[in-house]
Write a structure and sequence with these properties.
This protein has 4 domains: about 5-165, no CATH class; about 175-320, no CATH class; about 325-410, no CATH class; about 425-645, Up-down Bundle (Methane Monooxygenase Hydroxylase, Chain G, domain 1). The chain is built from 24 helices and 11 strands. It is about 65% helix and about 10% strand. α16 packs across α19 (about 415-460). β5, α9 (about 190-205) and β6 (about 220-225) form a beta-alpha-beta unit. By secondary structure, the chain is of the alpha+beta class. It comes from Parvibaculum sedimenti. Pfam families: PhoU_div.
Length: about 650
């Protein structure tokens, strides 16, 4: 039977006492949770006495405790020889915790709820097992046991408090006198109504972003001088959000077992300048997810009533982004750098997009399907950001979250949304390859300039009118420009699937430029020696072949940019023809270079001329070899990886 009906049928006049007891029980919940936090902090202080002194005064006041001696008790804690914790006032703290739990159970007794029997049995068992804390000494291991939130370890006072709090929230909902924008409210003042409505407008604005996930139920009541708004967020017992409004001040108490999510939630309120005060960060400690829970307190002082309502609306609108946040953060590690996963979730919250739509469509499975569709089989252990590039991967995931959320909200079919996710990734992978080939074409154009400059310089020298020093200077300038393109290509290569393919390709193409620049430098020494013009005829033919080869390399990269598995056959044929011409040119340079060596052996006037002209011919032949290797590597990649898949 629903609680409200049960009360009407069985409680009679006792129901008049229930609202006050429920209000006291919720206040007791705040007190007990603070006292458990105090014990945990005392134990850490005893183990690290040289660390900064913790200050829990803000948390104490928020819990409604006026006793300032609780703050000073932390100064005298110590770890004793037998491992026990000495904590001044520990025996009184023990009793205060038990009294608080009894106060929390009181309205459940009054309401006659069947669940009270189980709570009573658990309370009795846990109380009986709790040591007495004689002499304010807490036996070793007791603090960890009573504050544990891990149900697998068995029951604890902390787990009992969480379960009682959940039952109190349910009872409060049944007692609600009316609904304001979906919030169940009771015993509020007239002035509270607009505040609850403001909070709920914000909550309802983004609530659709949770899709079919449970959570976001809200209750509100007045406890003494302050309005209390509670939201259940999701289904996690230790994930609690309580808002206290007193005058123009709003105090937000937030607990979470995941420190990263708590930090994320705090970061959302920077526009309002919320002051956060939490135990662990004030101590400067590293908090990990194995700890029981993470409690933080945020305070906002509004300058006026309108600002107060704006803040409450904003606060309500942010809660949905906590649901499944940590699950999403962890699965994003497979696709983004760790910091970028949090960046993505922060962006999604700021854009009112969220991540639940992405999860509803399959989360990581949605992305794996897209990777398979894009024909990009990642290497073992390789992440998407390593194949596509960190910023490109982050930008793609923004697209995925946006199209998932907007598509589902607009009622589009899941199949259509999945197709959008797949085709976008394929486009981005292909776009990265196109950018690489475009830069490679620009690099090839500079190689053509190097080859042409060297050929023209040699021709002019043969006619007695060349300044080969100037030609060498121009070659050095072009080679430096080529190096700049190489740097850009290397940056892009890191984003590509199979980056070793493009790295090798880049290495070979740059060898062409290096050999030609070195050849121009060597050629600048020709005017210093007397020699027969006939000795330079093979060198001139080699230079002609290099110009032709560089021109074919430009054509090859331009044709490669048009090659696709489903593209026109003519584009692939154009590419293969350019490759074939480059291979034939390389064979021809081998023949001419051998002719040059033979001629030098027969006619070189001395060793220096033989060395100079021979080195020049060898560098040109090496440039042709590098042209051929570049063509073959690009051909193998397009045939095996692009056309064959």
């Amino acid at each position: 039977m629903p609680v409200k009906s049960l009360m009407m049928d069985e409680l009679g006049e006792r129901a008049l006492l229930l609202p006050d007891q429920l209000s006291e029980a919720l206040t007791a919940n705040d007190r007990v949770k603070f006292l458990l936090t105090l014990m945990q902090t005392a134990e850490r202080r005893a183990d690290r006495p040289d660390g900064p002194m913790p200050d829990l005064s803000a948390e104490r006041r928020a819990a409604g405790l006026a006793d300032a001696t609780l703050d000073r008790s932390l100064a005298d804690v110590r770890r004793e020889a037998d491992g026990a914790l000495y904590l001044p006032g520990a025996a009184a703290l023990r009793q205060a915790v038990l009294d608080g739990i009894a106060a929390m159970r009181s309205p459940l007794v009054l309401a006659g709820l069947p669940a009270n029997e189980d709570f009573a049995a658990r309370e009795a068992a846990l109380s009986a097992a709790l040591p007495s804390f004689d002499g304010d000494r807490v036996p070793a291991g007791v603090v960890d046991a009573i504050t544990s939130a891990e149900r697998a370890r068995g029951d604890s006072l902390h787990i009992l408090v969480m379960d009682l709090h959940k039952a109190l929230n349910a009872l409060q909902g049944e007692l609600s006198e009316e609904s304001i924008e979906g919030a169940r409210v009771w015993r509020i003042d007239e002035a509270d109504r607009s505040l609850v409505a403001a909070f709920m407008r914000g909550l309802n604005e983004t609530a659709p972003l949770k899709f079919d996930h449970p959570g976001l139920g809200t209750t509100a009541t007045r406890a003494a001088a302050r309005l209390v708004i509670q939201n259940d967020i999701g289904t996690n017992d230790a994930h609690v959000l309580v808002i206290h409004v007193e005058g123009l001040a709003v105090t937000l108490t937030y607990t979470d077992i995941h420190v990263q999510r708590a930090a994320f939630f705090q970061s959302l309120f920077k526009p309002f300048g919320v002051r956060w005060d939490d135990t662990r960060t004030r101590q400067g400690e590293q908090v990990n997810e194995k700890e029981n829970y993470y409690l933080c307190l945020g305070r906002y002082d509004a300058p006026d009533r309108a600002s107060l309502e704006r803040y409450l609306g904003f606060l309500g609108s942010r809660i949905v982004f906590l649901i499944d946040w940590n699950h999403t953060r962890k699965l994003l590690r497979e696709f983004l750098r760790k910091p970028d996963g949090v960046r993505l979730l922060k962006w999604a919250a700021e854009q009112n997009i969220g991540h639940r739509g992405f999860l509803k469509l399959g989360g990581e499975q949605l992305l794996y399907e897209a990777i398979e569709f894009a024909q990009q089989t990642l290497r073992y252990g390789e992440k998407l950001h390593e194949a596509l590039g960190a910023e490109q991967a982050l930008d793609y995931l923004k697209f995925v979250l946006r199209v998932s959320t907007e598509g589902l909200l607009q009622g589009r079919s899941e199949r259509f949304i999945r197709d959008e996710v797949k085709t976008e990734l394929a486009r981005r992978f292909h776009g990265a390859q196109q950018s690489l080939l475009s830069l490679a074409s620009s690099h090839a154009a500079l190689v053509f300039e190097l080859a042409t400059g060297l050929r023209d310089g040699l021709f002019a020298f043969s006619e007695g009118r060349a300044n080969l020093d100037a030609a060498a200077t121009r070659a050095q300038h072009w080679e430096q420009e080529a190096d700049g393109l190489v740097t850009r290509v290397r940056s892009l290569v890191r984003r590509m699937h199979k980056p070793e393919v493009y790295s090798d390709l880049l290495h070979e193409a740059d060898d062409v430029a290096d050999a030609l620049e070195e050849a121009a430098f060597v050629a600048s020494f020709l005017p210093k020696f007397e020699m027969s013009p006939e000795l330079l005829v093979p060198v001139g033919r080699l230079a002609d072949l290099l110009v032709e080869g560089a021109q074919e390399m430009v054509k090859m990269f331009e044709a490669a940019g048009q090659v696709r598995r489903d593209g026109a056959r003519e584009d692939f044929d154009d590419f293969l023809e350019a490759v074939d011409r480059l291979i034939r040119i390389e064979h021809e340079t081998d023949k001419v270079e051998r002719e040059a060596r033979g001629l030098l052996l027969m006619q070189a006037p001395d060793f220096r001329v033989h060395q100079l002209v021979g080195t020049l011919a060898r560098l040109l032949e090496e440039a042709a070899d590098a042209l051929s290797r570049t063509a073959l590597k690009l051909r193998d990649h397009l045939v095996n990886d692009v056309m064959a898949g």
